[in-house]
Known about the structure:
The protein is α/β, with parallel strands linked by helices. It has helices at about 10-20, 45-60, 70-75, 75-85, 100-110, 120-125, 130-135, 155-160, 165-180, 195-205, 215-225, 230, 250-260; strands at about 1-5, 25-30, 65, 95, 115-120, 145-150, 185-190, 210, 240-245, 270. It contains 13 helices and 10 strands. α1 (about 10-20) packs across α11, α5 (about 100-110) packs across α11 (about 215-225) and α9 packs across α10. The longest helix has 17 residues, at about 45-60. D-glutamic acid binds near residues 37 and 154.
Amino acid sequence: MIALFDSGYGGLTVLKPILKALPEYDYIYLGDSARVPYGNRSPEMIKKFTEEAVEYLFKRGAKVIIIACNAVSSVALRHVQQKYLKGADEHDRKILGVVIPMAEEVVKTTRNGRVGLIGTRATVNSKVYDKEIAKLCPPTRSIKLYSEATPLLVPLIEEDYHKEPEAITILKKYLRPLKSYNIDTLILGCTHYPLMLKAITRTMGKKVKVLQSGDLTAKSLKNYLVRHPEIESKLTKGKSLTILTTDDPSKFKTFTEKHFGMKIKMPEKVTL
Ligand code: DGL
């Protein structure tokens, strides 16, 4: 089974392209809606919540866990990899994040080396995108990352308020500094933000290429499974999807069907 973990609905923007690219497997999606947003919390708290989620998903039979949430990938990925993939387990199961596939794409995409990032406070403060892009950037080039924390966007999206004029005003205010830096590439460093993609691309203009994690993570997972048959062979192929939430299942179902056009079974309510 392949599991995806996010603090709430956002990871569905990663799940959808993964289901399209790799439809044959069994999937489980966990959204910790009761504790969203994660992005304003301390690294210690994010690590603690992530441990709980990872332990739970492995207990439910996950063999690969995709940490869809950028805040979690930025702050807690290394921590849970070190804690849960020790010894024999290392060859038996995997935990993957969304930052590296994005960093690889940034290096391929930018022409002028001026790149913007919007994300939660946790993601921006971690500087993980700066570090991963610097590692991948060839010595003959330089890429400068301009980061803006945009902490109000996730609560607006989770409240289904993100298409209202007030939300668009807040978004435009957040993007204003990035527009002035003459960036040619913008990283949506949060799984929730593709839900505001239209307003973001309209505000940034045609010259800015807006990158989101979903398709990049799906491509990277597909390649990973080809390169690691020892993990791929452990995945069950039943084309099932189970959605788990720590909060109201009917709210989760309504939001998913409205914004993702996916018909889903009633999510299961779980306690981590
Ligand atoms: N969706 C998460 C991300 O990709 C963050 C949302 C939150 O703050 O919980 O960063």
